[in-house]
């Protein structure tokens, strides 16, 4: 079983990813073997937010040349995680038809990402 820190390796901080934060989309470099459900669970556990969707992309290493030898940079996997920015309590019908609110309260942004909004 992987821990949340084994799944989420590092945040990806680029101009494009910083612009997407306003819409609730955060970009992370993740383990190459991590699935979308593992990524969502890890982000929810580490940052205490509600994840609505996860998009992933695999990147091959670029071919680099050093004198006469060709080599590759390491391949990596990137995940764009969309979080719930509304922060509304979720209501559902419990036994007997009573309206019940969820007990968990989630944050609407990730402040630990390294910069403010």
Order of helices and strands: HEHEHEEEEEE
Distance between the termini: 34 Å
Shape: elongated
Low-pLDDT windows of residues = none
Neighbour order of strands in the largest sheet: 1-2-6-3
On the 0 to 100 scale, the average pLDDT is 88
The main pleated sheet reads as: 4 strands, antiparallel
How many DSSP-defined strands?
Answer: 8
Polypeptide structure, described:
- By secondary structure, the protein is an alpha+beta fold.
- Helix content is 19%, strand content 35%.
- The chain is built from 3 helices and 8 strands, in the order αβαβαββββββ.
- The chain has a 4-stranded antiparallel beta sheet. Strands 4-5 form a two-stranded antiparallel ribbon.
- It starts with a helix and ends in a 16-residue tail after the last strand.
- The relative contact order is 0.22.
Structure in a nutshell:
The protein is of the alpha+beta class and 117 residues long. Helices cover 19% and strands 35% of the residues.
Secondary-structure map with pairings?
Blueprint: H1 4-7, E1 8-11, H2 15-20, E2 25-30, H3 36-47, E3 51-59, E4 63-66, E5 69-72, E6 76-83, E7 91-93, E8 99-101
Antiparallel strand pairs: 1-2, 2-6, 3-6, 4-5, 7-8
């Amino acid at each position: 079983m992987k821990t949340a820190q084994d799944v989420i390796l590092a945040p990806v901080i680029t101009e494009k990813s910083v612009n997407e934060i306003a819409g609730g989309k955060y970009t992370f470099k993740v383990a190459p073997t991590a699935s979308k459900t593992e990524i969502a669970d890890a982000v929810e556990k580490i940052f205490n937010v509600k994840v609505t969707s996860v998009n992933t992309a695999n990147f091959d290493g670029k071919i680099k040349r050093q004198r006469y030898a060709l080599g590759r940079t390491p391949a990596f996997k990137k995940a764009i995680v969309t979080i719930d920015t509304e922060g509304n309590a979720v209501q559902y019908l419990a036994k007997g038809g009573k309206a019940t609110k969820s007990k968990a309260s989630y944050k609407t942004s990730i402040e630990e990402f390294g910069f403010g909004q």
